[in-house]
Specification:
The chain is an alpha+beta fold. The protein has two domains: 2-81; 90-246, no CATH class. The protein contains six helices and eight strands. It has helices at residues 2-42, 47-88, 144-151, 174-181, 184-195, 229-246; strands at 94-98, 102-109, 112-119, 123-129, 136-140, 167-171, 200-208, 211-219. The protein has an eight-stranded antiparallel beta sheet, sandwiched between helices. A hairpin with a 2-residue loop joins strand 2 (102-109) and strand 3 (112-119). The relative contact order is 0.12.
């Protein structure tokens, strides 16, 4: 919860900084291109000249604000798409635009369908197909999702396992989950997916019938947000390996 509070504070600080920068740009432009021409035009006897004095600067103001904003947005989205494509297309995925500002990647890797989305939050939602018919959720223990889970009456498993320290697990079938979590490779994979170095605050793995999902959400830093090629490959390979292992487990009764 402490980390969540720090992140919320950073969200407000980030918004405040953006508003201050926007004001620092817009206010001088308003003064120079709106108020000053208006004052000059009010002292001009010729109506046609007065209109030109007001209209031309006002048009320039609109072009700068809206044209500059659109150009900046296009540049940011284009650069972000190139950065994400460089991370995920080498892994065998094909990218396309998702919800204007996000990216979606799909493909077949190691014989499994992969569907991944990156969108505002920031959030990364990676899903792969699996034949496992079970329900299990694991998350970093300081994530807000755990508080919400308890609010809705779900209690975590009593693991008492140093190798899973920092990870909280919920499962529908406790015996099946404990048997899975006794596997050293599963412990290593969950630690890799949830506890390894990451720009995301909340890190979760969800297993549900027919699908295994990695969900990463919220930036830990104020502005800087970087995913490395190693992290991208680690997340995908880790999820694929975990899916393979869960399929070797006998299905829950």
């Amino acid at each position: 919860m402490f980390k969540l509070g720090k992140t919320i504070a950073k969200d407000y600080a980030r918004s405040l900084i953006i508003y201050v920068i926007a004001a620092a740009i817009a206010i001088p432009l308003i003064c120079v291109l709106i108020f000053v021409p208006l004052a000059i035009a009010s002292r001009t006897d010729n109506t046609a000249n007065a209109l030109l004095i007001m209209v031309i600067p006002a048009t320039c103001f609109l072009l700068i604000i809206f044209g500059g904003g659109a150009g900046t947005l296009f540049f940011v989205l284009r650069r972000r798409a190139k950065q994400y494509d460089a991370l995920f297309t080498p892994l065998g995925l094909t990218g396309k635009t998702y919800m204007l500002s996000g990216r979606q990647y799909q493909g077949t890797v190691q014989g499994r369908q992969v569907d991944m989305r990156l969108y505002r939050g920031p959030a990364l939602d990676m899903r792969i197909d699996t034949t496992t018919q079970a329900r299990l959720s694991a998350a970093n223990s300081d994530g807000v999702s755990l508080t919400l889970a308890r609010t809705f009456g779900r209690e975590p498993l009593d693991l008492n396992d140093p190798e899973l320290s920092g990870i909280t697990v919920f499962a529908k079938d406790e015996d099946w989950a404990l048997s899975l979590l006794a596997n050293p490779e599963v412990k290593a994979l969950l630690s890799q997916l949830i506890l390894s170095e990451s720009p995301f605050l909340m890190r979760q793995v969800h297993l549900e019938p027919g699908q295994l999902r990695l969900f990463l959400y919220r930036n830990k830093r104020l502005f800087k947000f970087t995913i490395t090629p190693y992290q991208a490959e680690q997340w995908l390979n880790g999820l694929l390996s975990l899916a393979r292992i869960t399929e070797t487990q006998p299905s829950p009764l």
